[in-house]
Amino acid sequence: MPLAKRIIPCLDVDNGRVVKGVQFVDIRDAGDPVEVARRYNEQGADEITFLDITASHEGRDTTLHTVERMASEVFIPLTVGGGVRELEDIRRLLNAGADKVAINTAAIFNPEFVREAAERFGSQCIVVAIDAKQVSAPSYAHANDQLGSGGRWEIFTHGGRKPTGLDAVEWAVKMVGYGAGEILLTSMDQDGVKQGFDLALTHRVCAAVNVPVIASGGVGNLQHLAEGVSVGGADAVLAASIFHFGEYTVAQAKQYMAERGIEMRL
Amino acid sequence: MTTAVDVAVIDYGMGNLHSVAKALQRVAPKANVWVGDDPAIIRRATRVVYPGVGAIRDCMGEVRRRGLDEVIVEVARSKPLLGICVGMQGLMHHSSENNGIDCLDVFPDEVVFFGDAFAKDACLSSAQQRLKVPHMGWNTVQQCHPHPLWKGIKNNARFYFVHSYFVGAKSCLSTVGITQYGLDIAAAIARDNIFAVQFHPEKSHRDGLQLLDNFMQWDGNYSC
Question: How many CB pairs under 8 A join A and B?
Fold first, then answer.
């Protein structure tokens, strides 16, 4: 299959600076988003995801301006998420140069928003971001069983603090039915702790939907990236801190995955 | 405006043209890159880009409402024209998207849905029939015919695709680039002064920029 799996560096941006929290607390500054994006572009990143975590309203204009600068410098696909609540937000981001827009909380409070967005702008640019936490563990057959069977994951909002009671796999299926063209799946349990993706969760969602799934949350080394694809079945893998702090380059990650038989763009 | 623009990017109100314009400006810093829907300017431009994202019904609706259909057909007979993604599909005879939409008929081919094509093709394995739609990501393009726009781009280089409808590579006589996604799809087609691609050169990193650079320098000559 010649279609390549994708590596997507993720930039969490607060008031115009790249930051990365460890389970949403310990924030470390990682630089100017346009500089960072340009570096990943040169290293061969397949896409860039830009998550705006700016709380203030004034910060939104900074974001649009940053997206515009980034889109003028970086000629690979750009997904922007964070605080997308209205069709007008999507229009503004697309006009600023985003190729895809990630909808998270707004989809939970108003699923019809996803349908309207997909109808208006096309499914190809509507990504639904899902933040999931395990609420009951899968049962594993043996020590090397990475996927297990059963288990339940639910959607949480507000940085993982508020449960919604929604089943993550069912939610993914529903969102695709509403027109989501891609699922960005983050494990809130794994996010920032560098122990690898939640492979069971990734696998459940990938098996349930017929659109691309991006695995996110938990990458601490290159093996984790490879497992997201080879075990979890993800179409793309997203990581932040391993690239931000120079532990690995995107090029090294792609080489590593290609050597393990994963189709990559080198 | 008295001087003709170097490249007109046709804007029919269907989303992000920022990237296309920025990418053209990047490869041709001195060029006058114009984005708009004024037929007079498009007619006088040295070369024209017909981009597109979104659903074909809305795209064709806007193209016709703004009176751009005649202009595009005229340009397709007279000067270098680059169709991108839905812009390429708009140059076809007909698309099965949105219950069937007539396109500009510059090429006689049909645009079809991956899901339908996978279901109909008895030769496909069950794994191929389960391929995800949209076809999204970086795929290889086999240059099955030489063309000035392939200059400096390796055969089987990867380009960025995102689409759910496609033109079959085998049925289309103008195919110059083939991509496999379960089936052989026309990644690039060419005839005389027209070149059209299903992928997004403006999002395809170095090879994409190289293709745009080649387009900016192309005199519109091609004989197959």
Answer: 96
Domain membership of residue B196 (yes or no) is yes
Residue A192: Cβ-neighbour burial (10 angstroms; 0-12, 13-18, 19+): buried
Cβ of A210 within 8 Å of Cβ of B133? The answer is yes
- Select from B16, B55, B135 the Cβ nearest to the Cβ of A97: B16
Using the beta-carbon criterion (under 8 Å), do B162 and A77 form an inter-chain contact? yes
Average pLDDT for B180-187: 96
Biggest CA-to-CA distance, chain B: 59
β-pairing, A236-239 with A213-216? parallel
Cis peptide before B134 (omega within 30 of 0): yes
Would you state the structure tokens that stand for residue B220, as one six-digit string? 């519109």
Residue B166 has pLDDT above 60, yes or no: yes
Domain for residue B223, yes or no? no
Confidence of residue B224 (pLDDT cuts 50, 70, 90): low
Interface contact A92, partner B, CB < 8 A: no
Q: Which residues of B touch A41 (CB under 8 A)?
A: 205
User: Annotated catalytic sites of B, by residue?
Assistant: 85, 200, 202
Biggest CA pair distance of chain A: 52
**Helix (H), strand (E) at residue A38:** helix A33-43
Number of H helices, E strands in chain B: 8, 13
Q: Which of A135, A134, A185, A132 is nearest to A160 (CA)?
A: A132
The pLDDT assigned to A23 comes to 45
Which architecture characterizes domain A6-259 according to CATH? Alpha-Beta Barrel (3.20)
- Give domain limits for chain A: 6-259
**Complex ipTM value:** 0.91
Q: Give residue-wise pLDDT tens across range B96-150.
A: 998 999 999 999 999 999 989 998 887 888 777 788 999 999 999 999 999 999 9
CATH number of the domain bearing residue B141: 3.40.50.880
Nearest-CA distance from A163 to chain B in Å?
30
**Which A-chain residues 176-235 have CB contacts (< 8 A) with chain B?**
181-182, 210-212, 235
Q: Do A76 and B205 touch (CB under 8 A)?
A: yes
pLDDT (0 to 100) of residue A25 = 45
State yes or no: is A99 an active-site residue.
no
List, in sequence order, every beta strand (DSSP E) within A17-99: 17-20, 28-31, 48-52, 78-81
Question: What is the rounded distance in angstroms from the CA atom of residue B165 to the CA atom of residue B117?
Answer: 10
Residue B106 lies in a domain: yes
What distance lies between CA B34 and its chain's CA centroid?
A: 18
Give the residue numbers spanning the domain of B198.
7-217
Question: What is the rounded distance in angstroms from the CA atom of residue A43 to the CA atom of residue B210?
Answer: 18
Among this protein's residues, is A145 annotated catalytic? no
Q: For chain B, how many structural domains are there in total?
A: 1
Q: Beta partners for A153? A: A134
A173 vs B: CB within 8 A:
no
How far from the centroid of its chain's Cα atoms is residue A117's Cα? 19
